[in-house]
Amino acid sequence: MKQNIAILTDSSSAIYQINHGYDNIFMIDLPCFIGEEIYTDFMKNKDEQFYRAMGETDLVPKTSQPSVIELQEKYEHIKSLGYTNIIFLPISKELSGTFAMGHQSRDLVEGVEVEVVDTQTTSTILTSLSIEAARMAKAGASVKEIVDRVLAIKKRSVYYVTVNNLTHLVKNGRLSNAKSVIANLFRIKPIIILNQEGKLVSIGTVRTHKGAMRELVNKIKQEFDPATGVLHIAHSGVIEDLEFIKSVIAEEIPGCKTEEFVIPSTIIAHLGLSSIGLGYVHY
How far apart are CA 129 and CA 92, in angstroms? Predict the structure, then answer.
């Protein structure tokens, strides 16, 4: 029987921010919380509500993975649309339990085959992987061909992040208070990589925020091939930062193809509102 393949991803990607045109892409929400208030349904609400709420509170935002039942219902819904196969591309299993929930849920559904992939990534790279998977499915590729291609692209993709204010990372347990006091005292900004294992790892520090943004570009410049790649800029709505890093890219990697995104709510909840990311995808 011919495979009819759907692609499922989650809201840690920025898939809900773009008009991609593929009706075989589906998304499940990873809810965000501030106190008792829940922020979800990002396909409808986008990121503005959560960003605004974060800017108006001192509470530490939290995120949650979808439940087994929520994923089961999503699988059932996709099956009801006539799909024989689902490729689920969730956030890296090193960053969330969503991958594990995906596995547990697939055993509860009959009549549709579900392949859960450890993408070892998130954010806009996950967006690109989902769109490429959907394109291939529409072109008649098999589940194995799609998964192999997605993982090959992922291996040629990297993301770097910096934040202007470390306080939020500390509140979320990403950095000790002692280090925070020292880092903020000396205005040290971290250079963080989403590495090939799907973990967020600090790989250095810079004295200023603009210096950190320049360092992101320098890292990318050493690895990026404009002939086969696309640069991803993910910002938190700080237009000054966005324009600055774009100007550095224009100086250092002129003429390269770039795409701009807002950092998804699921990610900004852990990084804080003074974040900016720079990554690339090689096709």
Answer: 13
Contacts of residue 68, Cβ cutoff 8 Å, sequence gap at least 6: 101, 104, 105, 108
Hey, what CATH class is 5-30+65-155 in? alpha beta
158-282: CATH class: alpha beta
* Helical axes 98-106 vs 68-80, angle rounded to 10°: 60
Supply the pLDDT for residue 177: 46
- Answer whether 201's CB lies under 8 Å from 167's CB: no
Confidence label for 173 from pLDDT (cuts 50, 70 and 90):
low
Contact 7, 87 (CB under 8 A): yes
Q: What six digits make up the tokens of 68?
A: 């087994």
Ranges assigned E (strand) in 73-188: 85-89, 113-116, 158-163
Nearest CA among 182, 204, 178, 175 for reference residue 272: 175
Q: What is the pLDDT of residues 12-48, one digit of tens each?
A: 999 999 999 999 999 999 999 999 999 999 999 999 9
Identify the pLDDT of residue 166: 75
